[in-house]
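does this look right to u?? magnesium ion version
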Amino acid sequence: MNQKFAGVKGMNDLLPGEIEIWQHVESTAHAVLARYGYSEVRTPVVEDTALFVRSVGETTDIVGKEMYTFDDKAGRSLTLRPEGTAPAARAYIEHSVQNLEPVSRWYYVGPMFRYERMKTGRYRQFFQLGVEAYGIAEPAEDVEQMELVTHLLARLGLTGVSLNLNSLGDDACRPEYQKKLVGYLEAHREALCAECKERLTRNPLRVLDCKNERCQEIARGAPSILEMLCQPCQAHFAEVQRLLGVLRVPYVLNPRLVRGLDYYTRTAFELVAADPVLGTASAVGGGGRYDKLVESLGGSAVPAVGFALGLDRLCLLAKAAGQVPTGRPELFVVTVGPAARDRALELATGLRHAGHRVELDARGGSVKSQMKRADKSAATYALVLGDQELAEGVAQLKPMAGGEPVRVALDRLEATLTELKQS
Ligand code: ATP
Ligand code: MG
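got this back:
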């Protein structure tokens, strides 16, 4: 027996039956993003390891333990991208885009890789849709994106996702907050998980994001950053909230919301689903502002704001919400006799060129077995074409859901199908 292979753990195959929902989610996203003036970018799935270390942050979970890093044959350290914001910023800087246009609105769709413990909605290869706007520091841009994502989720029929909002301050006010937070956490040090004990010294804000029950309990009592924002950050955050009100975008203030990456300043938001289908992986997306990122990666001082949605989780939600588009053919062509076979091929080809979904099974066989296949294909109609009918230039069009077959002139077949589709 030849050896059988299995896919890599945590990396899924997407097969017909499953892929339709993905295509539906992605095509809806492409359409919505185009209306908001976003253009797609595609960057490679591997980048220089240092790009992520520098931008995402050495003390984050992603860089600390989740990256797929390897040396190529020339000894360069490369990493399968764990997220898309740093690669997009790298491309933005490398191509001097800020010299070509003052504002750029980009989005990307593609696989990301994180070496994580797997469960429902948490995989080692997963897909993100990410959105990045460069060049605008105004709160209106943050709000435009939050409204965009809210609208996209609504278009996908996903109710029950709430927008959590916070501000993470900036270099002027966050250090003060961090000091106060460390003071609070130190008092609870013993109750923290081992990792959080370490986070406490290396990256205390991240303790607020720990998934451990006891740490979350402690986090709930932590001081709020919103009370310590400096005046400019406060003004920015107030305007974000005012404009969300103007656009009637519902949100929940969550002063303990931090993001898993180091590069955030000011606005941070997360989209959290209530549906139990996601288990503990309830965040479908998150984002915020990163005004220092482009500069910190060697570009000029260009403010930016963005978010990423997890497509795997979105598709799970869409499926649970009954949003399963079908890939049914309109017509399954059944033939009787060899002469009909050639004509059927021609007819099917012509109909496909005219925009119809048509199937035919070249194995032929009895009418009964072909009708069985027609049934299995879930086609709306079967077209039965025999030598006798062919001589008369007609065929039988049979509704698969039941009902009487109707005779259709072959030269009226396309028009008839079009009419039926519209009725
Ligand atoms: P989580 O808290 O669930 O680990 P995160 O904060 O690490 O999420 P981000 O880096 O903000 O996630 O990525 C944005 C979105 O990408 C998440 O909200 C989620 O929907 C999705 N995502 C992140 N990691 C995974 C994964 N391992 N498998 C599937 N989807 C993921
Ligand atoms: Mg994570």
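The first strand starts at residue 39 and ends at 40. idk if thats expected tbh
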